[in-house]
Known about the structure:
With 295 residues, the chain is α+β, with helices and mostly antiparallel strands.
Amino acid sequence: xxxxxxxxxxxxxxxxxxxxxxxxxxxxxxxxxxxxxxxxxxxxxxxxxxxxxxxxxxxxxxxxxxxxxxxxxxxxxxxxxxxxxxxxxxxxxxxxxxxxxxxxxxxxxxxxxxxxxxxxxxxxxxxxxxxxxxxxxxxxxxxxxxxxxxxxxxxxxxxxxxxxxxxxxxxxxxxxxxxxxxxxxxxxxxxxxxxxxxxxxxxxxxxxxxxxxxxxxxxxxxxxxxxxxxxxxxxxxxxxxxxxxxxxxxxxxxxxxxxxxxxxxxxxxxxxxxxxxxxxxxxxxxxxxxxxxxx
Length: 295
């Protein structure tokens, strides 16, 4: 593609037509914005134009859209051409389609950070999001709630109905739980039948408790698998930042201990962390020095 100094398209070759679906007559006189996908922000284009207007070559991967709306990725080089005297008269863009490579990279990145069975974030991504949420909460001086839950009677159901049935239960619990939280919140599978949640902007137990009640209620309904009804429930342990801990490790440990307290109380309930409460190994939790002990 060749444009004038103002970015108006003057020429496109047959490869452009084949890749984008646009005939030359449909784009000549227009700008390359005809291909915009919406995947790049204003700062991306500001840097691109800053480079080529300064007479420098720009190279990068552009996410564009074909005439039919399909997304494609182009490894692109844009070179400015100057007349005598140094004034830029044209820009020439050439590129190659790298859509398959980008899709494979995205697939591998997703597999590294998401659970293959449920599609939820895995433990690695959960901890990353929790770290980000804590930094944001500290900046905004607001709270957040961390919860851990697992399935009551899951091992029994797995043994009775088989692993395929167990997988179906895990997928359904993931789907139901995602429907109980907001877009800004996180639901993750962090191992086995254990899940975790981050509820951002929840300053106290009163604001988080209705969400957990909903998670418990929606997962009481049996899961249908091959004409069988499999009944499980969830036990939730929760704690709050900054009241119960300041780090990812502290909050997860205390939510985990609260979950085992919920199970000791009979399950299918939510229990909020209390200082000096035994963890899953029976050891008493001790509050941080200088931190208020929860009521």
